[in-house]
Structures are given as C-alpha cells and as structure tokens.
Amino acid sequence: MSSDSRPLFGKAALLGIGLIGSSLAYAMRRAGLAAHIAGFAPRAETLESARKLGFADTLHDTLAPTVRDADLVVLATPLGAFGELARAMAPHLKAGAILSDVGSVKMAVIRDVAPFVPDGVHFIPAHPIAGTEQSGPEAGFAELFDGRWCILTPLPHAHVKSVEKLRSFWQRCGSHVELMDAKHHDLVLAITSHVPHLIAYNIVGTAADLETVTQSEVIKYSAGGFRDFTRIAASDPVMWRDVFLNNREAVLEMLGRFNEDLSSLQRAIRWGDGEMLLNLFTRTRAIRRSIIDAGQDIGEPNFGRSRPKR
Amino acid sequence: MSSDSRPLFGKAALLGIGLIGSSLAYAMRRAGLAAHIAGFAPRAETLESARKLGFADTLHDTLAPTVRDADLVVLATPLGAFGELARAMAPHLKAGAILSDVGSVKMAVIRDVAPFVPDGVHFIPAHPIAGTEQSGPEAGFAELFDGRWCILTPLPHAHVKSVEKLRSFWQRCGSHVELMDAKHHDLVLAITSHVPHLIAYNIVGTAADLETVTQSEVIKYSAGGFRDFTRIAASDPVMWRDVFLNNREAVLEMLGRFNEDLSSLQRAIRWGDGEMLLNLFTRTRAIRRSIIDAGQDIGEPNFGRSRPKR
Known about the structure:
- The structure is a homodimer of 310-residue chains.
- Chain A is of the alpha/beta class.
- Chain A is 48% helix and 12% strand.
- Chain A folds into 2 domains: 9-180, Rossmann fold, CATH 3.40.50.720; 184-272, Orthogonal Bundle (6-phosphogluconate dehydrogenase C-terminal fold), CATH 1.10.3660.10.
- In chain A, the strands form 2 sheets. Chain A has a 6-stranded parallel β-sheet. In chain A, strands 7-8-9 form a 3-stranded mixed β-sheet, covered by helices on one side.
- In chain A, β4, α4 and β5 (98-101) form a beta-alpha-beta unit.
- Chain A is globular.
- Chains A and B meet through α7, α8, α9, α10 and α11 of A and α7, α8, α9, α10 and α11 of B.
C-alpha cells in the first residue's frame, strides 16, 4: 500500500456490490481513493444489506444515476451481464471516465463491452486475483486484495495515463499490479483458477451421487482431503457458470492437459508403477513451498485450521 | 475426550514417529494413556529429532526392545513397510497385546499383517482420519485427532474387549470412533481422501509442465484456487505412493466415476450448457455447509486465511 492519501477519483461507481464490489468499497474507503462511492444492484435485498453495512455513499437500482459524473466505473457483477450493462449505461458515461471491471475472463469482457464504450471513455479491463467462497455484500472486507495480484489487460492503444491511474488505484487497494495480454491472461487463469474450480465442483458432485458410499459418510470422513475441495465448490454458482461459458477455449485446452496427465497416473496405479508416483509426488511438494515463499499462501499446516498449542 | 484419567496401557510402542506417530505420543501424554511410550524409527536423524522433542520415554532403532512387554503396538510408518515390520516383530510381541495401525488402507493392511500375528495377540486395524501436509516428528501435535473420526476395522472374530479398549483409547485421544468393514472403509476413503489427493497431485503436475504458462505465473496467480490444491499435493510422497499401490481397485473405481462426470462437464462447457453447470454448482454449495455443520471444517472464508478485522 502506498502512503499517498490524496483521493484519486471524485466519484467511483460500483456496478455490482457482492463480495468483490463491497470489498472494493471498503478498500477504497480505507485508502481514501474516492470522494463519493456509488453502488448499483438490481435486487432490493442486496441494496438493503448494503445500506445497513454502509460501505457506499449512495445506492441505486438504476444505472444512469449510478454512473453519472463518475470518474471510475467498475463492472463487478457476474460477467455474463457485462455486455447488457455496458450497452445500457454507455449514454450516461462521463467523458474522460475510466471504465474497468473485475471479471475472471478478459477476452470475453473485451468482446462484450468494447463495442459500447463511447469515444473519450477509457476502457481498461482488470482482474483482481482474490476472493473467498462466500458471496454477497455481507461477505466483503477491506483486506481482501492485500498482497494479492491484480492483472490489467489494456487494449493496444489504451490511454497510458489512465492505465497508470488504475494501476495506482489497485496498488492503494493493497494489490500488486501486472499488465498482461488478455488472451494470455485467460490461459493463465484457466490453469490457476478455472480448471481447479471445475475439478473441485466435479469431485464434490461425484461424491454426492455415489450409491456405494452414503452422503453422511462423505461428510463425516471429509477431513481426509475432500473437505478442501468443498470450499472451492461452494463458490458463487452464477459467477462460475459465466466464467466457464466465457473462457471455453482455454478451459478445454487446460482440461485436455489435465486429463492426459490423469490417464497416465491412472495407468501407473493400475500397473503398480510406484516410481512414477513417487516422482510426481516429490516434485509437487516444491511448488507448495514456492507459493508460500511468494506470499500467496500461509505456511501453517492445514491452512492454520488446526493450530498446535505448543 | 473422557475425563477418565487412569492409564489404559502399561507400555505403548509406536513403530514410526512421523506426523501421526509423534502426534499420537503427544495425545497419549495429554490424556495419560500409557505409563511408558516407546518409539521406533530406522533413521538416526528421526531418532535425534524425537529425542530433542521428548515425546517418547525410550527411542529405538531395532524392533525387539521397542515392542517387548508392550500392551499396545501401533504401526505408523508408510503402509508399504507394515508386512515386513509385522514379520520381524512377531516373535517379540507380548501375549494379550493389542496390535493396531494408522494406515489409510485397511484391506491391504489385513492382507500384509494378519498372517504374522501370533495367537493371543489382538490385531485390530485402525485409521484416524486426520493429518496435515507436513511430515516428520517435528510436525506432530497433541490436538491433531481432536474432533476427527477414527475408523476401526476389526476382523470378524476380533477380541471384543480389546476392540472396546482401542475405542476408548482413540476417544481419549480426542476422536470420535466408528466401526466399519475393511472393504467398505477402503471405498469410503477412496472418494473422501485418495482420489482428492490424486487429482491435487495431478493438477499441480500439469501446471508445472505447461509451456504456454510459466511456473512463475502459476505461483503468482495461485490465489485464484490453485493454491488450495498445492497444500494437499505437498503431503508425504512415500506415504501416498503406498496408499495408491495398496488401494488400487477402489481408487480406480472412484476415479472412473470422477472421469465420467468430468467428461459430461467438459461437454457442457463445449456446448454452452449453462443450466447444467448452474445446477451442479448450486448442489455442491450445500455439501460444504453440511461439512461445517458436522464440525469437520471451519466456516470462516478461505479456511480463515484472510481474516476480516471488522
């Protein structure tokens, strides 16, 4: 976090105030990044929760008053809604505004949003690599982005000063910032996020559908490893449906690699190839160590769930 | 935990003093379950660590003095070594002793150990569903088994009083205890533990071998989900090799189901079947809730890794 505390923006508009949108509001407040935070949500319950929590200065169920005069507009709904939101708010955007988002797929966001961006509005797609399995405005907190990476995927002729301003914004929200090509982003996230979610959802589904093992047994004995997967498989269903529908090509490519490797592990088990198994299991241990050293996970056993008292 | 504090056993012998063996020693000490704890390990470094930590009364690099006069003997090495250990220690076992283990597969343990068990020694296989990704005597702690399940898989004509004694032992180590048929145990663990470990090892291997995404990118952006898998994939390589070599049939069966389901998810992504995806993603969320309600995981977001300060 920078120690600079001048507000970067007059008004910031958050379209979507769930886990990410509300966390962004808290992080902006913490760092004093906007003089006014406006939040938009279509559902009355969401707006009511947000009103009680108090993280926004104004709350709206229509787009025009949310984005009017905003210097920063951030799309933070499930990404399947971005195109329609962009189309509907375009006439109300202020000249010189930065339009960004937090979607987990970047090629599809560019495809859906770019056609509606008016001249003079600076569209800079972004993706903070942060989240929890919870959703909704109650799930948000200011520290969500601390120490995590935020990837910006500006288009080739993006407005350089706006890109730098958005970089500074995310840094002051606590993040490290990296610039990347959108297509490459989608490939990287397919392996670091999308396929992991897919196989977590999948194994939880498989376990629930067995006839030979009861659901109650799966739950009781989940501490053997399964429970870790259920956390990821508890993530927001609509958000993740939209991710898979919109990063199809990269997900299928990475899934193909995963399947190839799994077939060869399956074969090693069938034929009793202990050396092949030991080899892989030894290599993977080192990667965990690198992730802890890079500050992207804590080193305590079991994610600190079981804390030795010694 | 029971409030009863009479020692259950005079001497208890732990063959293997890694994460599980050392944790068992601490848990026994905490509850006063044995008058004397003897530890065995073949490697001098392991013995030296254990000596410094002080969780055992005596430490040995040979079997005979470890198990001599022991009322409880627990096999706690990787399970590929159990057969040879059983053969070698059999002549030194005390009549009336309970011989148990902590192996993650039960049919193979019975196959390997039962033939060597002398008349008058009560062989009762057991499996505490607890652990962390760390290994070695330094990784152990008394609370490891608290609130977790321990499954006993006694043979059909097992000595009932000894089974009850072992049940009481594990309860006083902090666990819930369940009795189960060994074959069924192996099927349950295949889906709740073994296949989850296999796919975690697999995706970490896949990610490390890509040419299009660098290892450094995988590490930096791992907070999108991948990092969760690396914890499991950092588990002890030898232990897990032995699990897969010894629970082949059940693992391949469950892996077959996993693969079938994954193919159908893959197809849904390819053809844009959002309804099918949303359906699964909604069902899996409920299972997470049941696991938390059953006390088998904590409910804090991100396993409590990111703790909101509000």
